[in-house]
Each structure stands twice: as C-alpha cells, then as structure tokens.
Design a protein that fits this description.
Layout: E1 2-5, H1 7-13, H2 19-30, H3 36-44, H4 52-62, H5 66-69, E2 70-73
Antiparallel strand pairs: 1-2
Length: about 80
C-alpha cells in the first residue's frame, strides 16, 4: 500500500494556487499561522508526519477531510 500526500490537488480543486494564498486562507478561516518554510515543505514534499493542529487547520481552510488530503493506492489484498 502506498499513501500519497495530495495537498496540491485539493488546493487546485478549490482554486487555491499558491502557498501564499493558502497561508492567508489558513489565517483567515482557521486562525492558524504557518511559516513560509513549513508551507513550502508541505507543498513540495510528502511529509513524514503532520501535526494534528496543522491537519485540522488545512481541513478547515480548504473545507475538506483528511481523506481528501491523503490518497491510498495499490491496496494489498489478503489471500483467501
């Protein structure tokens, strides 16, 4: 099984195109501040961990669920 970080896809589906736009949205809708460096890391790399507070803020600002932000591919089927 492979888990994918889909932040950019979720942003695009909500017509949020840049990290700066997302940072403004996070501040306005979720009352959450994130540094430019942290935003860049979330946008350009698959995170090895995401703080609960950050995940909640992203979901609030983008009006999505964690299921939208994480994709799962190639599920392993159990032998019968």
């Amino acid at each position: 099984m492979q888990i994918r970080w889909q932040l950019r896809q979720v942003m695009a589906s909500r017509e949020v195109w840049t990290g700066a736009e997302l940072r403004r949205l996070l501040e306005k809708d979720a009352n959450f501040e994130i540094s430019s460096a942290s935003m860049s890391a979330l946008l350009n790399h698959q995170p090895s961990q995401v703080k609960w507070e950050t995940l909640q803020a992203l979901c609030t600002a983008l009006r999505c669920t964690p299921n939208d932000l994480f994709g799962v591919s190639n599920p392993v089927s159990k032998p019968e």
